[in-house]
Amino acid sequence: MISEPVDISLRDRAIWALLADRHQQAAAGDGKPEDITAAAAVAVPAKVVFRNLAYSLLKQQLLKRNIIHKALFVSDIPGWFDPSTEQVSILVTFNLLDPSGVSKLYMDRLTDAIKQTCQPRLWSSLLAAPKKPRKSRPFGKAAPVPSPSVTSTVSRTSIKQLLPLLPDNVFLQKVIDLQKEASELSQQSVRVQLLSVEVSRVSPLIIAGRYVKLCRKLPQTPWILDGERKLETSVEELIAAPVVSAFGPGTKYNFVSSGREDIDVRCLGLGRPFMLEISNYAHTLVSMLTAEGKHLGDGTPRVDAGDNAKINTDSTDVGEIFPAPGDLSWMARRINLSTDRRVFVRDLQVMPIASANASLKQGEFKKSKRYRAVCWCSDGGLSTERIHRLEAALRVLSGLPAEKSTLQWPPLSIATGLRHSTNFIELPGWEINQLTPIRVLHRRTLACRQRKIQWVRLADFCSAVAEDAPFELQDFRVWAGQYPTEELFLLELCCEAGTYVKELVHGDFGRTQPNLSSLLGCPVDLLALDVVAVDHDWPPCLPDPGL
C-alpha cells in the first residue's frame, strides 16, 4: 500500500476548483455546480493516480519477487494496520527535498486563508500549535539543525476537514492559482531530490510466555539507581537477549509482565505471564522458522509436535516442521540454555497485540496469587495457644460462628500437594487494609488498599524441609542453620493480586491491619518468599517443555 504526500489533496482541490470556474465561464454563467460535483464523484482521485504511478515505478526497483506466506493468525479482513497478520509488515518512507519551497508555500497559504476567512471555532482544533518537547535541551548542547525536508504540522485528516471551509474562488485566489503557477513552473527546471529513505515496521510483534525465576539475587527489570547499575543483569535482559539476537541488529523491545516480584523472591510453578513487544526487527518469523527448519534438516530430532505427528526429516517446509508457526518452543529452548539456570521460560508463542495488553492488565489486578514463605516467630515459636487465638480471630473476621478449637501445634493434618508429607493447618481468610508500604513509598502513591486473603496454611518447618522434600522447599533449609527450627514455620496463602505479603506478615509498623503478627499476638517476620502460582490462564499453555 502506498500513501500519497500530505499536500496532494491541495492540488486535487485546485484542479476541480479550476474546472468549476471554467465550466461557469463556458456556460456564460448558467453552469450548475452540480455538474462538476457529479463528475468529481466518478472521477479517479489524484491520490489514486499518484499511487498507481508510484507503485509501478517502485515495483520495478523493490519487488523483485512475490513472497506470500500464510498469516500467523486467521483474520477475516486483513488490513494494512492489522497486527494479526504479517502479509504487509514493512513501511518505507521517502523524504523528498523541495528546493523551491512550493509545497511549504501551499500549506502556508492554506492556513493563512483559513484564518482570514473562517471563524476560529471551525479551524482552531485543526491548526493547533505543535506541543513542545517535555525535555529541555541540555546546557551546552547546540540546538538541532532543522531538516531541509518539507514537514508540515497539518495532517492528512486535518487537510480534508479544512478544504471544504474555503469556497472555490477563494481557494484559487489565495492558495493555488493554477493558471498563474502553470506558466511560471513551465519556465523553471524542477528537479526532485530524494533526501532520505526510512524503513520501519508497521506494527510490533508480540511474543508472550511465562517465566520461572529460581534466583534470589535477580531483579525483574534492570536495577539502576542514580545512574549506577546495582546488579549485572535482570529477568528482562536474560529473556530478551536471545530474542533480540534472533531478530537481528537494530531490534527494539518492550518487556511487560503481569505484576512483578521483589529481587529476593522466587517465582515458581507455571511462572509469571509476560510479553515482549518486538519492533524494528530485521528477520521475520517465517525466515527464522525456515532457518531453524534447515538446521533441523540434518537428521537431528525436530520440534515435538505431539505423539501422533509425523514429520519428514528431509523437508525444510515450515508448515511441516512447525505445525503451529506461533509456537516458539524452539526459541524458548535457546533462552533456557543461556540463563545459567536462573530463569526459565515456557509457553513462548506469538499473540495478537489486541488481546495481549488487556490480558496482562487483567491478570495484574483481577487475579489471585499463591505464595509460600519461611516465617520466624522470635518469641518462642508457634504454640497451640497461639493457634487457637489466631483461629478465633479469623472466625470473627470471616463472620463464622465461634466454636471451640481442636487445632494443635505442631499440626497433625498431612498435605500431599507438595509430593511429600507435610503437617499443616488450614485457616479461613480475611480482608486487610494496607497503606503503601514504607519500602516502596518512594515510588508508589500513598494510598490505602483493601485486599482479600482467601485462605492461609501454616506448616511445620521440619517436616516441610525433610530429606524427601521437593526442590521448591530445599532452598528453605538454609534457615535452619541461622534460627532455632522450633521458631520457624512455613506460611502458604492465596490472596488477591496486589497484596504486599511481607507487610501482611510483620504489619509494617501497623500500616497493614489486621496482620499475622497482631492476630497471633507475637512478633513474626518473613525470611524468604516464593510466588507459587499466578492464577491467570494467559497465554495458553503449550506442551510441557521439560523444565
From TrEMBL:
GO terms for molecular function: RNA binding; tRNA pseudouridine(55) synthase activity. InterPro entries: PsdUridine_synth_cat_dom_sf, Pus10-like, Pus10-like_C. The keyword Isomerase applies. Pfam families: Pus10_C. Residues 207-284, 429-535 form the Pus10-like C-terminal domain. Keywords: Isomerase, tRNA processing. It comes from the Eukaryota. Its EC number is 5.4.99.25. GO terms for biological process: tRNA pseudouridine synthesis. It is an enzyme of class 5 (isomerase). Belongs to the pseudouridine synthase Pus10 family. This is tRNA pseudouridine(55) synthase. It comes from Schistocephalus solidus (Tapeworm). The lineage of its organism: Eukaryota, Metazoa, Spiralia, Lophotrochozoa, Platyhelminthes.
